[in-house]
Design brief:
463 residues, alpha/beta, Alpha-D-Glucose-1,6-Bisphosphate, Chain A, domain 3, seven-stranded mixed sheet, 38% helix, 23% strand
Length: 463
């Protein structure tokens, strides 16, 4: 048996023709259906060139395992999530490599009720089955049904349920789909808003899905990709802008001045919105940058809950705590009323609703939080030995720390600042986040001091 190397920490990702191809997609589709003894499996795909053929192969595999396939066509990962819940399917597969380079593809997989896979009892079992190809005998092959229209209608209904469309006032919003899968789905949302009388004007950027990604891989976390949205926000005097990644389960905001809004402040803003709706609710956040979110949640009477980084951990924490909302600084936002899954479109309608109701701009909402709790943003360091580099930093700062937390990487807190260091799951990288209580001048000094101990090359991304 040859073990498949495209199975990563949470999802399937691989280089096309190297460790993922049509044959492997078939094996994974069949393994998912067989593992769950599935009666039905939802399958969707993103805008990459190989995604339709990989989805067709996965569909054939699932049908050969006896499952009916609910085909939702080109769709975002969150559309697959909602279709699994909407159609009461046994599992779901989205063929996507999100923001990975153009020569990659992969799959995101969930089980019934859009639940994340358990690593040991689900993910590793599917991997072993796909590797061994020990297929069960099936009396009857499953059928494929095209539910792309029905699934999108149900998804749009759910997305718009998060805002009061009647309360929306005239706003001009820039939408950058990055030539990924977001364009057609956003158009369906915009069409419904127009039909309901919402006075919104949308300016579309890099909107048409294009497998060649002529404007670069849709990854708004990269600073060089941000000007495409920021410049249009400024030139069009828009109220705000939103940029999506390839499968649009992440969204990134730009204020009315075209300034990129770091996602840790978006988490705090969305937490505030939900605590106005439901007093005392629980809010899940990751451990990399915490002070702004914890301050907002506790001031509003909510209960902050910490979770390890990663969608599987987050969804488990959301469900266990029945949290109304959760957010990661990577721009994944999770919602109780969206099957506890992440969505990039829900934050868009929530922010439009907030600005409409309050009369305050996005920049106004964020300004005070930026000043109160400055953040460095995630800084990556390419080092030879990540664990040793982190140990060196901890040794240098341990004596002065007020607290040390090793729940997710290692976090050291001091009176007026804290930092988190984590190893990458897939690369020889150390990821650093620093936050302070006021005083942006402290940030770069702290980053430089820790960088000197870590050594290695510094950059925003090493993909």
């Amino acid at each position: 048996m040859t073990e498949l190397t495209c199975f990563k920490t949470y999802d399937v990702r691989g280089k096309i023709g190297v460790n993922i191809d049509d044959g492997i997609a078939y094996r994974i589709g069949r393994s998912v259906a067989q593992h769950f003894s599935a009666k039905s499996v939802v399958i969707g795909f993103d805008a990459r060139e190989t995604s339709p053929t990989f989805a067709a192969a996965a569909s054939q595999g699932a049908r050969h395992a006896g499952a009916d396939v609910i085909n939702i066509g080109m769709a975002g990962t969150e559309e697959m999530y909602w279709a699994v819940t909407e159609f009461d399917a046994c599992a779901g597969i989205e063929v996507t490599a999100s923001h990975n380079p153009i020569n990659y593809n992969g799959m995101k997989i969930v089980k019934s009720k859009s639940q994340p896979l358990d690593d040991v009892s689900d993910f590793q079992m599917i991997k072993a089955l796909a590797s061994s190809q020990k297929w069960s005998h099936v009396a009857e092959e499953g059928r494929e049904r095209d539910h792309s229209v029905k699934a999108r209608q149900a998804y749009v209904d759910r997305i718009l349920s998060f805002a009061d469309v009647r309360a929306l006032r005239p706003l001009k919003i820039v939408i950058n789909s990055g030539n990924g899968a977001a364009g057609p789905t956003f158009d369906a949302i915009a069409e419904r808003l127009l039909a309901l009388g919402a006075p919104l004007e949308f300016i579309r950027v890099h909107h048409t899905p294009d497998a060649t990604f002529p404007n670069g891989i849709p990854n708004p976390l990269l600073e060089e990709n941000r000007s495409a949205t920021a410049d249009v926000v400024k030139s069009a005097t828009a109220d705000f802008g939103v940029a999506f990644d390839g499968d649009f389960d992440r969204c990134f905001f730009f204020d009315e001045g075209g300034q990129f809004v770091p996602s840790e402040y978006v988490v705090g803003l969305l937490a505030s919105i939900f605590l106005e709706k439901e007093a005392g609710a629980k809010i899940v956040h990751d451990l990399r940058v915490i002070w702004n979110t914890q301050d907002i949640v506790t001031r509003k009477g909510g209960k902050p809950v910490q979770s390890k980084t990663g969608h599987a951990f987050f969804k488990q924490a959301m469900r266990f705590n029945q949290a109304i909302y959760g957010g990661e600084i990577s721009a994944h936002h999770y919602f109780r009323d969206f099957a506890y899954c992440d969505s990039g479109m829900i934050p868009l309608v929530l922010v439009a609703d907030l600005i409409s109701r309050s009369g305050r701009s996005l920049g106004d909402w964020i300004k005070d939080r930026l000043e109160a709790f400055p953040s460095s943003g995630e800084v990556n360091f390419k080092v030879e030995n990540a664990s040793k580099a982190i140990d060196n930093v901890v040794s240098a700062y341990r004596a002065g720390a007020v607290s040390i937390d090793d729940t997710d990487g290692v976090s050291l807190s001091f009176k007026n600042w804290r930092f988190n260091l984590r190893c990458s799951n897939t690369e020889p990288l150390v990821r650093l986040n620093i936050e302070t209580k006021g005083g942006t001048d402290k940030l770069e000094t702290k980053v430089a001091s820790i960088a000197a101990i870590l050594g290695g090359a510094r950059g925003s991304d090493f993909r």
